[in-house]
Design brief:
Helix content: over 70%
InterPro entries: O-mannosyl-transferase_TMTC, TPR-like_helical_dom_sf, TPR_rpt
Keywords: Repeat, TPR repeat
CATH class of one domain: Mainly Alpha
Pfam families: TPR_1, TPR_12, TPR_8
Order of helices and strands: HHHHHHHHHHH
CATH superfamily of one domain: Tetratricopeptide repeat domain
Largest sheet: none
Number of strands: 0
Shape: elongated
Distance between the termini: 58 Å
Number of helices: 11
Strand content: under 5%
GO molecular function: mannosyltransferase activity
Length: 182
Amino acid sequence: MNLGIVKSALKKHAEAERCYYTAILHRRKYPDCFYNLGNLYLDIKQYDRAIEAWTNATKLRPTHTNAWTNMALVHDSLEQYDKSIAVAKQGLKHLPGESQLYFSIANAYGKLSRYAESAEHFEKAIALKPTKAQYYANYGVLYHRWGKLDKAELMYMKALQLNPDEPNLKENLAMLQRKKTQ
C-alpha cells in the first residue's frame, strides 16, 4: 500500500492502482487500502470509483472519518447535495461527534436554500469544534445569502478572530458592510 501512495504522489496512476489492488489482495480487511485507492480515483476524477472504494473502507471500518467526509465532499462538488447529506448522515450514525460531517450537511443544505436546516447543522458543528474558523465563515455566508446581515457579520467577525489572515473572509465582510450601508 505504501508503494501505491508513493506512485500516486508521483502521478503514476496506473502503477499506483496496481499497487493498491495488490495490497487489497493481501490485506482484504484493511480499510486504508480502499481509502487510498479512493483518493487515487479522486485524483484522476473517477468519482464513482472513488466513492465505491471509500464505501468499502467504511464497510470495513464504519468509523473511518476521512472516507465518510470524502464521500460527502465529492457528492457536494458534483452538486449532488441530497446524496452528500445522506452520506454524511449515515456517517454520523457511526461518528456522532464528528464536526466535519455536520459541517458537510450544513453546506449542502445551504446550497439547497434550506437555510434553517443548514443553520441547525452549523450550530452542531461549531458546538463540537468552536475554534474552527471555516465553520463560522461558511455560517456567515449562509446568513448572508439568507439576508440575515447582522448575523452574517457576527459570524464573519468570529471567523476573523480565529483566522485574521483569511483574505476571502475580509472580502466577504467588506462586501456585507457595503451592502448594509446602502
